[in-house]
Amino acid sequence: GAVVSQHPSRVICKSGTSVKIECRSLDFQATTMFWYRQFPKQSLMLMATSNEGSKATYEQGVEKDKFLINHASLTLSTLTVTSAHPEDSSFYICSARRRSPNTEAFFGQGTRLTVV
Amino acid sequence: GQQVMQIPQYQHVQEGEDFTTYCNSSTTLSNIQWYKQRPGGHPVFLIQLVKSGEVKKQKRLTFQFGEAKKNSSLHITATQTTDVGTYFCAETTGNQFYFGTGTSLTVIP
């Protein structure tokens, strides 16, 4: 299957700072990337859908000014958590799909964010 | 928003027993996908169902898509310890990609 690389896998940051998470599709062009947040023992909650070259579509309740998403190329999307607070601590995971709709999604390894 | 519910939320089975998780949607789905997430890992694609009433098998796993395309199930025959993980169905309609609430499976040796 296709490979999606997410970096970093773990990050600890101080409250008030910003953290950038990268999601790369290594061997295919991803026209759509998804960003999820997952709490322990819970499902993946879709935060936003990112299409290459256009603004991300955020889910209800997700602050777009706090979670900045950029999908500048067909192989890279970034999520920046701005002015992080302890309640932002979570597991963030991205996924990517190929050009064709309704195809499977390939997931990155996830990023464990801890805000202290 | 997310409208796909899964039951049960948790399931503990003895190794060798069967396991089933159900996925229900309030709306008609164009297709449904199933993923498995091992503890500490990321979701991995298992299968996609598209047709009404479709049944697909992968070794000990059987996937079904309801006639009305509003529900789906995953059945594992004779569970093994390697089946441990959380199983998610995912609703994919157009550009939307929502995960069900998931069923966490524990297999007791």
The gist of it:
The complex is a heterodimer of chains A (116) and B (109). Chain A has 116 residues and is an all-beta fold. In chain A, 0% of the residues lie in helices and 52% in strands.
Number of helical runs of chain B? 0
Mean pLDDT of chain B: 93
SS summary, helix count of chain A: 0
Proportion of residues in β-strands of chain B: over 45%
Shape descriptor of chain B reads: globular
Largest sheet of chain A: 7 strands, mixed
Structural features, described:
The complex is a heterodimer of chains A (116) and B (109). With 116 residues, chain A is mainly beta. Helix content of chain A is 0%, strand content 52%. Chain A is built from no helices and eleven strands. In chain A, the strands form two sheets. In chain A, strands 2, 4, 5, 6, 9, 10 and 11 form a seven-stranded mixed sheet that branches. In chain A, strands 1-3-8-7 form a four-stranded antiparallel sheet, with no helix packed on it. In chain A, a hairpin with a 2-residue loop joins strand 7 and strand 8. The termini of chain A are far apart. Chain B has 109 residues and is mostly beta strands. Chain B contains no helices and eleven strands. In chain B, the strands form two sheets. In chain B, strands 2, 4, 5, 9, 10 and 11 form a six-stranded mixed sheet that branches. In chain B, strand 4 (32-37) and strand 5 form a beta hairpin. Classes of the chains: A mainly beta (116), B mainly beta (109). Chain A binds chain B through residues 1, 32, 34, 36, 41-46, 49, 51, 57, 59-60, 93, 95, 97, 101-110, and chain B through 1-2, 30-31, 33, 41-45, 48, 50, 88, 90, 92, 94-102, 104.
Core attributes:
heterodimer, A: 116 residues, mainly beta, seven-stranded mixed β-sheet, four-stranded antiparallel β-sheet, B: 109 residues, six-stranded mixed β-sheet, five-stranded antiparallel β-sheet, 11 strands, 0% helix, 57% strand, globular
